[in-house]
Design a protein that fits this description.
3 helices, elongated
């Protein structure tokens, strides 16, 4: 039962990451078009694009961690592979945290 919840969480995180990517592209496109028209709402569209990028990045990290945990729990992935993925995701999370901090300063 617990592994089933991890699998579902991984799948939903992947879906949310894809939707956030799509929303980020839409918001960035709207922001570029609004800035060309010199409308004051362009800043809000850029802010929305940054937030969607942060949401998508966090969901990608969550999906990677939970899918690795699931396949390790099922027995498909070895302990060495799971440890390697966890280390890589830890480094990616640290880089994401630095990038997110820089993006959050612009909000």
């Amino acid at each position: 039962m617990a592994l089933e919840l991890v699998r579902i969480l991984s799948q939903w995180a992947g879906v949310i990451a894809f939707l956030a990517l799509f929303g980020c592209f839409l918001a960035a496109t709207a922001a570029v078009e609004l800035s060309r028209a010199m409308v004051d709402t362009a800043d809000e569209a850029f802010r929305l694009a940054r937030r969607m990028a942060l949401l998508g990045g966090a969901c990608v990290l969550l999906a990677g961690l939970t899918s690795t945990l699931y396949w390790w729990g099922v027995g498909v992935a070895s302990a060495a592979a799971a440890l390697g993925m966890a280390t890589g995701l830890g480094l990616a999370t640290a880089a994401f945290a630095v990038a997110a901090r820089k993006l959050c300063r612009t909000f």
